[in-house]
Amino acid sequence: MSLSRTQAARIVAAGGVRINGQVVRASRIPMRQELIEVSFPEHEPPRTLVPTSLPINVVFEDEHLAVLDKPAGLVVHPAPGHWDDTLVNALVARGTTLSGGAEGRPGIVHRLDRDTSGLMVVAKNDLAHRRLGAALAARHIKRAYAVLSWGHLDQSPTVVEASLARHHTDRKRMAVRADGRVARTDLHVVGRFGVCDLLRAELHTGRTHQIRVHLAHIGHPVIGDPVYGGGGARRMTGPGRAVAERVERLTPRQALHAAELAFRHPITTVDLNFRSEWPEDLRPALDAVQADCGQVAPAPILTYLGFFRKRSDG
Fold first, then answer.
1. Does any domain span residue 28?
2. Residues of the chain above pLDDT 90, percent
3. Same domain flag for 99 and 223
4. pTM of the complete model beyond 0.85
């Protein structure tokens, strides 16, 4: 029997897993020779999607799909702990028709982390969903992220190819592992400041937490990342330490934003390209690193710095 992570989490939350006769929580790590018992429900009625009115920014929509600019802090689809306050619930409340998709994930072609903002596409019917899914698998959907990372890359572009899988002991984290799934991220320096770089990160694959883990792996973690940040401003020494600490205080979440999304419409075959500027909640941090270097880039800052310029290198 195979279970999705959501199904397994439901069983644990319902008290269906015991170790040595004791009901356990999801955080419990079994030891060798412990007796694990799992009670599978005979029948679990499908969970109803609760419509919840939440602010969402729809930048494009037709009868087949919608492109959204997701705010930070919003979970994409229902899961344990977030059954009725997600992007999917907001779309249901809006009256948006969604394709079937995976269990609990109607319309979801690809995801963004809760605290990552920016562009994503959802499918409104099954045909569009199948074709978008195939385009994603074939790497025909282009995704580029704007990210502030600690320190400076040695070269631009920098190509990171490192396989990813679940962490051996912390299942909520991802890690670089030889037995993981192939993953590649291309990194281009858009702006170089005293304590950090502003990068354009282009995905060739779409693994969970890919950009965050790859940047941490090469020693340049995402500023504000609570999981893979590697000590944050404490990494910095010398006169830059005070600036780094100020930038960290001004960064309310991981400084990662899905800024560009391009794909061919799955039904009409028209080429679509969407852009989203640097988000307002991360603007103070970027202003601070610019001020430290005596720079002032006017809004729209990503456009001004050439983030959306076509790159032929790499």
1. yes
2. 64
3. no
4. no
Backbone dihedral region of 73: left (phi > 0), alpha (psi from -120 to 50 degrees) or beta? left
In a domain, 314, yes or no: no
Residue 47 lies in a domain: no
| DSSP letter string, 150-180 | ES--SSSSEEEE--EEE-SS-TTSEEE-TTS
Q: Is residue 237 part of a domain?
A: yes
148 and 295 part of one domain: yes
Decide if 313 is catalytic. Answer: no
Provide the pLDDT confidence category of residue 69 given band limits of 50, 70 and 90. very high
The string of pLDDT tens digits covering residues 86-129 is 999 999 999 998 997 655 678 999 999 999 999 999 999 999 99
Of the residues 113, 186, 225, 292, which is catalytic?
Answer: 113
pLDDT at 314 over 50: no
58 membership: H or E segment, kind and range = strand 57-61
**Of residues 265, 158, 285, the one with CA closest to residue 225:** 285
Find out whether 54 and 46 touch, Cβ atoms under 8 Å: no
- Strand 36-38 and strand 17-19: the pairing is antiparallel
- Domain of residue 33: give its range: 1-41
Rounded Cα gap, residues 234 and 296, in angstroms: 26
Same domain, 173 and 304: yes
